[in-house]
Design a protein that fits this description.
single chain; 117 residues; alpha/beta; Transcription Regulator spoIIAA
Length: 117
């Protein structure tokens, strides 16, 4: 299943829901492009909702790290929500769990921006 995205705003935070696989090729490129577009639009508070991501490979992880780095470099924040069990395990194995702010659900991630203000 190809990667699809749905963008929405919740309390001034841009939430990007991802559906499908984030893998080498078109899918990871789509994610990179979408994150760059959001940042270029001045979106500084981003949450990726990963509940419907069925698979992510090393290229997909790379796209997430690239998006996170781009966000940081532009003074923006990128947070992850609704990780599947498998994806959560991948983040722990790769130690990327120490890089990303991870939340159990989108609402908790959105609320975390209020606490940081």
């Amino acid at each position: 299943m190809a990667l699809n995205t749905v963008e929405k705003e919740i309390e001034g935070v841009t939430v990007l829901q991802l559906f499908g696989r984030v893998t080498l090729g078109e899918e990871s490129n789509l994610l990179r492009t979408k994150l760059k577009d959001l940042l270029s639009q001045g979106k500084t508070r981003l949450v990726l909702d990963l509940a419907e991501v069925t698979y992510i490979d090393s290229a997909g992880l790379g796209a997430l790290v690239a998006g996170f780095t781009s966000a940081q470099n532009q003074g923006a924040s990128l947070k992850l929500a609704n990780l599947t069990k498998r994806f959560s395990e991948q983040l722990h194995i790769t130690k990327l769990v120490t890089v990303f702010d991870v939340y159990d659900n989108v609402q908790a991630a959105v609320k975390s921006f209020e606490a940081a203000s």
